[in-house]
Amino acid sequence: MVFYMPEHSGEAEPLDTDHMSPKQIVAELDRHVVGQKKAKRAVAIALRNRVRRQRLPKEMADEVAPKNIIMIGPTGVGKTEIARRLARMTSSPFIKVEASKFTEVGYVGRDVESMIRDLTDMAVELVRREKAAEVRRQAEQNTEDRLLNLLLPPPPPAPPTPKPAAGEAPASAAAEGSGADDSRASYLRSREKLRDKLRRGEMEDRPLEMEVAETGNMPSFKLWTNQGMEEMNINMKDALGGLFGRGPKKRSRLKVSEARDQILKEEEEKLIDQAQVARIAVDRVEQSGIVFLDEIDKVAGRQQAGQGPDVSREGVQRDLLPIVEGTLVNTKFGQVRTDHILFVASGAFHVAKPSDLIPELQGRFPIRVELDALGKKEFVRILTEPHASLTKQYTALMETEGVRLEFTADGLDAIADCAATVNEATENIGARRLQTIMERLLEEILFQGSELEDRNPVIDRDFVNKRLADVVEDRDLSRYIL
Ligand SMILES: Nc1ncnc2c1ncn2[C@@H]1O[C@H](COP(=O)(O)OP(=O)(O)O)[C@@H](O)[C@H]1O
Ligand SMILES: [Mg+2]
């Protein structure tokens, strides 16, 4: 069981939502996202229901369909942020795709299935990492031995000592044997000395030659991009080929530190059962995969005869439907059943409404949660409360140069005020506005950095007004700058 410890605020260890109650999941989301209780509760319940389902007898478990969610709310209020945080908290395979992506030329049709393939790739990587951690010790030992072999090639094995013929003086045979033993023993001594040096990190830059698989890089999975999915699949295959040692090899000169990384990967792959990894990964996608379908409203729209874009939008929905309803998708790791994958969709639904989705798809997203628009009060909280809020980020950045930023309460109030005013006057982009405002506000300080005369700049209402008032008041200007 993994507990979240407030003191250890690092994000490195994924929390394990499988062991968290909905309340704990919401509490964890609260650390990063201000407000939006309903949406947090909905995703927390959905996550917990999956764990509950897996505890049911099989016939029952098969019947329980995931309760997919649509998050509805204006732009910049935390929809994607909730999904992003959720992804980091869960050990479930998770992918975020923009539904609108599928309307693009060349992305209509079968490519909708590619999100399941990507999700499976992700799961394979996830499981592979877990397995790698399990064999890490052994892999490291093997790696060290192989490095030593490269640095200090072992002497050729001594030729088998001929059996002393009967009657021959045993003394000569013994002398010969001990000579071989001596050189072997001295080799072993040097090897252990080298091992010590290696462990002390004294050999890191020493060059050596080794066979390197030409495409031996780890496949890199991009969780947050969905550009060029098909392309990625192809690269993946190449990368995996190299990873499994099937890629072409060539002799290269490497530093010990580089060689170690390379060999460690190879040794890990040798110790990992790839077929098992694929099996577990597919199972995990089927049982606990999560697809976040961002901007679903972009593919909603009333069918109007003869209008191209809408036809293609409905086409995307029709392609999505079987996947959301449950179908088999072919992946290179085997067939994946999508029946129990959880879908969380989100959209602003300014123009189109959820009721503009095709009815079958509406039925598959029974849970609707609305996110609240954000105002000045929330902006103050967003500026200060989240674990890595903007004020904390800027303060930390400046601290690296010995400058202590200080935000006063009336200063924060003024910043939030500006954000709300500009949102009203121009376009409401929610909390995103805070980013442009802060950047503008602190521009001079960021530029001067360690050359600042005042090492303890205080950001109070005066400071904010001086820097921002003119821009905020001029609507045309703020349209460009903020
Ligand atoms: N409720 C919130 N609490 C904290 N930060 C927020 C909140 N809403 C938005 N933000 C910040 O604003 C930015 C945009 O939010 P995002 O979730 O991407 O918007 P959208 O609702 O359009 O998906 C993010 O950087 C996020 O940190
Ligand atoms: Mg978004």
Question: Characteristics of this structure?
Answer:
482 residues, alpha/beta, Rossmann fold, Helicase, Ruva Protein, domain 3, 3 domains, five-stranded parallel sheet, two-stranded antiparallel ribbon, 17 helices, 11 strands, 53% helix, 10% strand, binds adenosine-5'-diphosphate, binds magnesium ion
Give the overall average pLDDT: 82
Quantity of strands, as a count: 11
Strand order of the largest sheet: 2-5-8-1-9
Give the overall shape: flat
How many structural domains in the coordinates? 3
Give helix % range. 40-55%
What separation lies between the terminal Cα atoms?
45 Å
Number of helices: 17
Uncertain segments are 1-12, 216-235, 241-245
What are the secondary-structure elements, in order, as H or E? HHHEHEHHEHEHHEHEEEHEHHEHHEHH
Tell me about the largest β-sheet: 5 strands, parallel
Instruction: Give the radius of gyration.
Output: 30 Å
Structural category is alpha/beta
CATH H-level homologous superfamily name of the largest domain: P-loop containing nucleotide triphosphate hydrolases
